[in-house]
Amino acid sequence: MEIFVLISIFAYFMDLIVGDPYGFPHPVIYIGKLISLLERNLRKLKINMKLAGALLCLILMSSVALITYSICKLASVNIYLYIFVSAVIVCTCFSTKCLADEGKKIYDSFEGNNIELSRKQLSYIVGRDTSALDEPDIIRATVETIAENTVDGTISPMFYAFIGGPILAILYKAVNTMDSMIGYKNERYIDFGMTAARLDDIFNYIPARISLIGFTMASFILRYDYKSCIKIAIRDRKNHTSPNCAYPEAAVAGALGIELGGTNIYFGQKVYKPTIGEKKRKIVKEDILKTNRLLYLSTFLTLILFIVISLFINKILF
């Protein structure tokens, strides 16, 4: 377990320094290509779509686990090489710097009063239709995405890296990628993507709830409304179609004193979501920067929490 702690620490700070450099052969790219390939071929079989979707999950997760195991096994000839290779793999599962950078780009786009650029920048990180969004809606969508992906992009893979190292971390990333590609409740994916969506809910269940500790502590340190952070998170935790997404979104909404949620358009369909938080004031572009600060500090504090818990368990058991 101690080596997984070391790998996770290196991976976290590697991500903060390097992020996701353009041109890097990121595993998610190849995971996404494999998902698309499997989907095309499984649909040709003309079998039950729920079964086809479950087979996709099984094949993808088995393939990703086997490939990751093989790479780590080859690197295990030297302990330092193993730690480095494993840290690189886990680092690719984190997206703290990348997420904050994308949020900052959207914030910067408002400086030139270029609403079209803001919509375009937002479209890179959300699945909803951004073509008709006004400035408050763009800010709201950005804050929601950063909040939700604080869990999906860092806290969840960190949680699994501490438990099972690079293999479990990359398995989580595969599940999360499947959900983002096929886990929709529209006509095409309601059956085919059901298993992927359920797996993502299961994998994120514990990390989403753990995130409240990091968000609350970060809100206290940053002098945001830490009391409302935890209060709104508990009150509005069910105000989302996902059993997990409302936790980070409500925590951020409470900390900033703003309202999130509401109606959005996905693939031409209007999707209503309950509101989250309390509208104590109007949402402004500076809320993007505040959410970025929560992202950085809450993930760092969660890292410290996981280190303490891991070392404590290691001392008790070993």
TrEMBL record:
Source domain of life: Bacteria
Pfam families associated with the record: CobD_Cbib
Compartment(s) where it occurs, according to its Swiss-Prot or TrEMBL record: Cell membrane
Gene Ontology cellular component list: plasma membrane
Pathway named in the protein's UniProt entry: Cofactor biosynthesis; adenosylcobalamin biosynthesis
Chief place of localization: membrane
Swiss-Prot/TrEMBL keywords: Cell membrane, Cobalamin biosynthesis, Membrane, Transmembrane, Transmembrane helix
Membrane topology: Multi-pass membrane protein
Biological processes per GO annotation: cobalamin biosynthetic process
Molecular function per GO: ABC-type vitamin B12 transporter activity; threonine-phosphate decarboxylase activity
TM segment ranges: 51-71, 77-100, 158-175, 202-222, 294-313
Main function: Converts cobyric acid to cobinamide by the addition of aminopropanol on the F carboxylic group.
Family per similarity comment: Belongs to the CobD/CbiB family.
Entries under PANTHER family matching the protein: COBALAMIN BIOSYNTHESIS PROTEIN CBIB
Protein name, entry field: Cobalamin biosynthesis protein CobD
Annotated source species: Peptostreptococcus russellii
